């Protein structure tokens, strides 16, 4: 099986024109139910007294936080390795470093490098999901903009995880 790595950044694809049709009223209701169901999956202990818009706002905030995390994971960290490697090896070649400390630095460097290469392996997947979550955010924003202004995002308070 021939797999190609996705090297296109999500930020590049955001500028490309997208053709999407606005869902009709019935479709918007179904999309709203879909995202409200996802909100319940994200947070099963959510307060049931919240209005539909408040649930949607909470879902949007959590989705924004998740998209931020995916942006972080989508970054290519391999570009930084040569500079760090040079600094680390310059330090390790010094004569005044005890053997035990040198071994600890080598082990830490090896562990960090393994992590970076593993993280880079999932970069394409992070890009794929980042696109998906950004589309979810666009749909959620359009649902909130089309909804009645009885619950505004400014009137809601959030916790650190992006929830209400």
Structure keywords:
single chain; mainly alpha; 164 residues; 64% helix; 6 helices; elongated
Compact description:
The protein is mainly alpha-helical. The chain contains 6 helices and no strands.
List the helices and strands and how they pair.
Layout: H1 10-14, H2 25-42, H3 52-74, H4 81-92, H5 99-121, H6 123-146
Per DSSP, what share of the residues sits in E-state strands of 2 or more residues?
Answer: under 5%
Distance between the termini: 45 Å
The proportion of residues forming helix, as a percent range, comes to 55-70%
What is the gyration radius calculated from CA atoms? Answer: 22 Å
Order of helices and strands: HHHHHH
Describe the structure.
With 164 residues, the protein is mainly alpha-helical. It is built from six helices and no strands. The radius of gyration is 22 Å and the shape is elongated. The chain starts with 9 loop residues before the first helix and ends in an 18-residue tail after the last helix. Residues 151-155 have low confidence and may be disordered.
